[in-house]
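Step 1: inspect the first sequence and its tokens.
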Amino acid sequence: MRKGSIAGFAAVVAIVAAVAVLFAYAAGWLSPGKLTPGRFVDRFKQVSGRHPGFRLNHAKGLCFAGWFDSDGQGAALSRATIFQPGRVRVIGRFSLGGGMPYQADKANTVRGLAISFMPAHGEEWRTAMINLPVFPFATPQAFYDQMLALAPDPATGKPNPARIQAFFAKYPESANALKLIQSQPVSSGFENSAFNSLDAFRFINANGETAWVRWSMLPVQPFAPAGPAHPQADTNYLFDALIASVREHPLQWHLLITIAQPGDPTDDATIPWPSDRKQVDAGTLTINQVESDDTSPARDTTFDPLVLPDGIAPSADPLLNARSVVYVRSFTLREGEHKSPAAVSPADAEK
């Protein structure tokens, strides 16, 4: 792999490396003798610092409220209540990857969109998506190994290129995923970002018929590419732009469901499905209100990907169980901590 590609991979991994440690411990892939809960928490906080009351990953965020209008087309795929024609209330959160709630906004930091769909009569559905087209790692073991590959060399304070090369030799799927990630243009802000589930799920309709799917939220707002690095340090410019946009008019995304064909992988989030796969527009997400973590009910919501309604079931992707356990662990930790002021607030954006 070229030197530039290695550097690019390091930049991507810097955002998700911390959550990789979480996955590895919480899902039990490491021996308890090597990594205890206390040592794991200490290590995570050593990497990102101590930030009481914040999420261990995607610590910097802005909550929202709005609704989802189903057009009924998703009902042919899933019997979940939210796909019946009508309107469902939603809450959620935009975020930046990483455990530092006061980090400066950067266009190339992974962006998250987490949503809780809450039908008045039916089961809740939670989903956490990011703006990458694929995930950089296929398995918890790959998470763990890349953590070692990127550990600083005591002599230089930087990752050892030989270890990074060895990682790619062992996990070529991560190298392929990186190429795809780097080939995709980054949008100028949250409001015109597309967000993807990455993991696959199984939809079951009213007749018991099943389909393997992934989903995306595609913005109605027109795409604009990210500009040069923002000149100011320690800014909230991405979040401030999002707040300003919502104040001008509600923001919207289409829920697009992609249907797999036989042979498409359903247990490996590093592999994209072919672009010619059938897609169903299941409805429109509308966001008309934003608020800080301090006041929103989304602050105390774990956007666990396994909180699923009848009609949606998980795949065998090994990341799903790990994510579920991690989110619960993060929630338990921060609920026992003093709640520090939110890093982003609409009131601050007015100043």
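Step 2: inspect the second sequence and its tokens, then contrast the two.
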Amino acid sequence: MCLLSRRLVERGVRFVQLCSGSGSEWDAHKGIEANHSKLCRGTDQPIAGLLRDLKRRGLLDETLVI
């Protein structure tokens, strides 16, 4: 998903939303620390790679990341 997002940004797509998994795994009302710790382990490295890639290509200057 991160690679696809980068390619879309390279081609000038104005809005790209990256989702993790299916459903709403991040919406937790109990066990938040354990749940979010697990989910963060699976997303931190790919997102960091995407941001590094965008920066290296000069695309991060024109990209808003939320």
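Step 3: confirm your contrast with the notes below.
Residues 32-56 form the longest helix (25 residues). Residues 33-57 form one domain.
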